[in-house]
Amino acid sequence: MSRNSIKILQGALVCEESKLRGDITIGTGTIIHPSATILAEAGPIIIGDCCLIEEQVKIIHRLPFDQQDKENTPVLIIGSHNVFEVDCHVEAPKIGNYNVFESKSFVGNKVTVTNGCIIGAGCKVTQEQILKENVIIYGHDCHMREGLDRPGLQTLQMETLSKMLPNYHHIRKPNKKN
Amino acid sequence: MAHVVGPEVVKYACTCGLLKSISSLYFCRYCCQLRCGFCVCHEVDSHFCGKCCENLPSSEARLKKNRCGNCYICPSCQQELSTRIGSKGPSNPEDPKSTPKKMYYLSCLYCRWSSRDVGIPDQSAATGGWPDRENVNANRLQEIIEMYKAMVLAEKQQKEKDKKKQRGKYLSYTDRTGVTAAALRKRIGLPVDIQHSLLKAKPKEPEPAIAKEDVEDLPEELLTKPVNLTEVTTIEQRLLQIDLQPTTVEKLFPVHKQLSIKRSLRCRSCEHNVSKPEYNPNSVKFKIQLFAYYHVPEIRIVTVEPLRAGRPSELIIKFTNPTQHQTTITILSLVLSGDENEVKEETGDQPSLPQEKQPPSLSSQPSSLLSLSSRQPSITIKPRPVSQEVNADVAIPSSKVILPPRDDAAEYDDSGDTHNIQDDPKLVVWRKSNKAFVKLLVTPKQGLALNTEIVAGFTMQHIYTNTIATTVENREPDKHDHNIRVFLTLGNLVGFD
Amino acid sequence: MPIYEALSDKLTVVLDVGSAYTKFGFSGEYAPRCIIRSEVRCKKTNTIRRIIDYENQKDLYDLLVDFVHVLYFKYALFSPKDKPIVVVESLLCPTLFRETLAKVLFEHYEISMLLMLPSHLVGLSTLGAETALVLDVGYFEAVAIPVCHGLPVIHAWQALPLGSQIIHNNLRALLNSDNTGINNLPESVIEDIKVRCCFVTKQKRAAQLSVAKPEITFAPEVKYPIGGSEIITVSGKVREKVYEILYDEDNDHLCLSTMLLDAITKVDIHLRNKLAENILLIGGTVMVPGFKARLKEELHKQLKHDRYKKLKISSFKFHTPPCKENYTAWLGGAIYGATELLSMKALTREKYFKENRLPDWPNMRDNFRTNN
C-alpha cells in the first residue's frame, strides 16, 4: 500500500474523521463529511471543485480484475459539482460533472459516468456501460430515462455546511495553494 | 399489528371457515360470532386524496372521476408530483431590480420528471390550472351513445306498447347477442321505427364509420433508426393515459391522483357495523372497532418440546383475557365438520340457495336506520369447511382456566398478584393478572415423515360477557359460551418414537 | 343522501376481464378508468397470481373475490352491493369462468343486475355499424367472428392460439440464442421488450428473414438493460421476426390471414364482399406498429391461393375505431351499458337465485325462441 498523500486545495472542507487512503487531491469548495471513505487503491484520485461528499459515502478507485495491468496507473478524475449522498458506494473509473449519486446507490467499476447523471436511491448499476449525459436511473428495476437538463446545484446546502461543519468537527488544514 | 402476532402460528377459524390470525378477525357483538374481511360487507365511507388529505363528498368525487383536482402523479414513475417554484430569472436580465415573477412547475422527486420535460408552460398559480386534455373522439362517441340510447329506448317503448306479446321467461339467444328490434327491422327492409316521436325529434343519426383500404404503414424509421429506449414508453406508462396511450415520452402528461377511501365493514347477518373509521382523513381512529383482539382471548405459543411422531410433547401456551370481565376457558376437542348449531342451521335446508334474512335491527331502531331503508338485507354465504388438516392430538384437560379481567394498572404493579384462584397445578403453570400459561400435551400422529409440519387444533370455549343491554329490563350483562376453533402450527417433526 | 343515491344508480360498472389485462370503467364514458393486469396478490404465499392460472372453481372464486374487491375499492370507490354491472365477455369464454364470475358478483358482492355482452358484437357498436368481420387478438387466442346486421354469425367463428402469449414464448426462445439467462426473466420483462423494441415487419422483408444470406439489412439492434446489472441484446432480426409466428401458416395451413378468409367463406355469399370491406381489429396485440399493413398484405397474398380464389374478393378495408384497440370491446360495453338495455335484458339477482344458473347461448333452454 502506498503511503497516504492527501492534497487539499484552499477552500475545501475536509473533516478529520473522514477516512482517506492513498493519493488523493481535493479541489476547492469540496465538502467531505466525517465518516466518508475515499480509497485510492489502484491509483490517484482527483476530486474537482464544489463536490459534496456526505456521511458513509464510499468512493473506491479499484480496477476490474481483467484490467489490472501494472503498466500505467490510471487516475480517477471526479469532475466538479458532484453530489454523493449518504451511504452511496461509487467505484466508477471516470466521473464527469454535475452528477448526483443518491443514497444507498451503488456504481460498479465498469460504469463510466459522464455529466449530469442521477443514480437514484438504492439503484445498483454494475453492467459495463457508459452512461449518457443527463441519464436518470431510478426505481428498483433501475429504469432509465433522459432528463432535459442536468440536476440543480446544491448551493444553499453547501453554504450552510461550510458554516456549520467547522463548528462541530475538526477540519483538515488545506495543504496546497491553488 | 401483524408484526406483533406474526409469524402466524396461531390461527382462529372464522365463522365462515377461513383461518386467520387474531389480528385480522372481527367479533360481532350482536351475533357473538367471529367475522373476517372475507365474510363481512365492505362499504365505502368517505373519499379523500392521499396526498393533500382533502375530504371529498361522494358526489364531488364522482364528478371528478375519483381523482383529486389538485394533486398529480408522475406519468413516468407514478409517484406523486410536487409543485416547485421556478422563478423566471433570465426573462428580464437587463433589469436586475425587477422582482422575478414566481412561476410554478410540477416535478417528480423520484425519477426527476418535470412538467417542463414535455413542454408544459409554467403556471402562475400554485394549484391547478394545468391543462387537461379532452378525448379526441368525444363528439363522435357521444353521438354514437345517443344513437344507441334512442334505439334501445324505442324498442322498449314498442315492447310496452304491445304488451299482449308475452316475453319469454328466459333471455333468448338473440337477446344475448343483442339483436334489437330496430336491427331486425332494418334487416327485413323496414324503415327504423318511424312511428316514434323520440326518433323523429332526432333526425340526425351519425353516419356509420367508413372502412378504409389504406392502412397505417410500418414507420420506415423503425427499420433504420436505432431505438433509444429512454424515449419509448413502457406499457405501464401507456396504460396510465388510457385514451392516448402515448408511445414516446414527450407525450406523457401529468395524471390526476386517484382518490382513496375509508371503508366501513358490516356484519352480513345482523347488518351492524364491525368497523367504522372516523370521517377525518387525518385520523387513524375508529368510531366502531369490534376487533376480535379486544373480545376474544389471545393465544400465544410459549414453548413446545421437540416433536416426535407418536410421543407426547409438552406445549405451553399463553392465554390473555382482553376484556373487562372475568372469563373461563375450557379446552374442548376439535370438531372439524360443522361444529356449531348455527352452522348447521344455515346449511340445513338448501345448501346451494342462500336465504335472505330480515335484519333484526331494522325493526328495533327505525329512525336511525331510515337512511338505510333502501338497503337490501345481505345474503348469507354458506360457511365452508376448514381446509386445514390436523396431524397431532391434543390431550383435553378436564379442568378449566379462569382468567381475571384486564387491568391496565396492574401491568405496573410489582407487588405481586393477589388473586386467589384455585388452579389445577397440572394445567396452569404460571399466571399474572389477566394472563395464564397453560400446559398441554400434544402427540403427533404415528407414521408421519420427518420434517412434516405439525398442526394441532382444539376448540376454545370462553365465556363472553356481552355488555350491550339488549332490553331495558335486562340490566345484567349477558354471558355466553363462545366456541372458537384454534389451530396451532407447532413446527416440524424432528424424529420418531 | 337520497340525491346521491339516485346519482349512483346511473353509474354502471363496465368490466372486461381479459386474460392479461382487465378493462374497468363506467357506462357512458369514453375510456376505461383503468386497465390493469388481471392478477391479484395471493395472501397465503404473498406472490402475484394471475387469474387465468386458477386451479379449480374454488380457487377461481377466491381469486375473483380478491380481484373484484380491488376493482371496486381501489378504482370504482363505491360499494358493489345492489348496483348493476355490465360484463363484456368473449363468446368463447369458458363456462366455468363466466359462471364463477357471476357467482362472485351475485353471492359475494350482492350486485343487483348483471348484463353479459359478447365482445365481438359490442365492439362493433363503437363504429355505429352493424356488419363487420371482427378479429379479436388477445392474450391466449385470436378469435374472428363475423357480425352481420347486428347478429354474430357464430357458426363461422375461427379461433387460433395466436396471441401475445405465443409471441412472448417466441420472443423468449429467439432471445435465448443470443443471450443467457432469458428463461428466468419474468413475463413482464419479455412483454416490455416486445412492446418497446419489436414490430411487425413487411412481407418482403419477412421472406428474407429465413434466408441464409438475406439481401436486406436488419433493423438496428437494441441493448436492453435488465436492472442495473445486465444488458441483453435484442438483435434486429429478432425484433422483426417475433411477430412472424402470427403470419406463418401452421401444419394445417392456418394463420391469422386464413382465419379471416375462412370466416368469410362460411357466411352467406352475398355478405362476403361486405365483410371483406368491413374488417374491425380489436385486442391489444393489434396495436403493434405494422400489424394492419402486414395483415392486408397477407390477405391479398392468400387470395391468390386456389382455396380462396372462389371468394372473388377484390379489396379489404379496415375500420378505425374511435379509440385504442385494446379497449374497443370495453367501449362497446360502455355504450350498451348507457342504454336502457340494462333494465330490459339484464339478469336480476332474484332471477339468478331462483334459477341458480346463468343463461348461455350454447344452452338450448335459452335458445327456444330461435327454434319456433
Mean pLDDT of chain B: 78
Total count of helical runs of at least 4 residues of chain B: 10
Indicate the percent of residues in helices of chain C: 40-55%
What is the count of DSSP helices of chain C, taking H or I runs of 4+ residues? 16
How many distinct beta strands of chain C?
Answer: 15
Low-pLDDT stretches of chain C: 1-8
End-to-end distance of chain C: 49 Å
Q: Round the mean pLDDT of chain C to the nearest integer and report it.
A: 88
In one word, what is the shape of chain C?
A: globular
**Oligomeric state of the chains?**
heterotrimer
- Please give the radius of gyration of chain C in angstroms: 22 Å
Please count the beta strands of chain B (DSSP E, at least 2 residues each): 23
- Strand order within the widest sheet of chain C? 3-2-1-6-7-15
Q: Could you walk me through the main structural features you see in this protein, from its secondary elements to its overall organization?
A:
The complex is a heterotrimer of chains A (178), B (497) and C (372). Chain A has 178 residues and is mainly beta. Chain A has one domain: UDP N-Acetylglucosamine Acyltransferase, domain 1 (3 Solenoid). Chain A has one helix and 20 strands. Chain A has an eight-stranded mixed β-sheet with strand order 2-5-8-11-13-16-19-20, covered by helices on one side. Chain A has a six-stranded parallel β-sheet with strand order 3-6-9-12-14-17, with no helix packed on it. Chain A has a four-stranded parallel β-sheet with strand order 1-4-7-10, with no helix packed on it. The model of chain A has no long low-confidence stretch (mean pLDDT 89). In chain B, strand 3 and strand 4 form a beta hairpin. The longest helix of chain B has 24 residues. Chain B is elongated. In chain B, the strands form six sheets. In chain B, strands 1, 2, 15, 17, 19, 22 and 23 form a seven-stranded mixed β-sheet that branches. In chain B, strands 6-5-11-12-13 form a five-stranded antiparallel β-sheet. Helix content of chain B is 14%, strand content 28%. Chain B has 497 residues and is an alpha+beta fold. About 9% of the residues of chain B have low confidence. Chain B has ten helices and 23 strands. Chain C has three domains: 168 residues, Nucleotidyltransferase, domain 5 (2-Layer Sandwich), CATH 3.30.420; 104 residues, ATPase, nucleotide binding domain (Nucleotidyltransferase, domain 5); 82 residues, Alpha-Beta Complex (Actin, Chain A, domain 4), CATH 3.90.640. In chain C, helix 5 crosses helix 6. A six-stranded mixed β-sheet of chain C has the order 3-2-1-6-7-15, with helices on both faces. In chain C, strands 8, 9, 10, 11 and 14 form a five-stranded mixed β-sheet that branches. With 372 residues, chain C is α+β, with helices and mostly antiparallel strands. Chain C is built from 16 helices and 15 strands. Chains in contact: A-B, A-C, B-C. At the B-C interface, strand 5, helix 2, helix 3, helix 4 and helix 5 of B face helix 1, strand 3, helix 2, strand 7 and helix 4 of C.
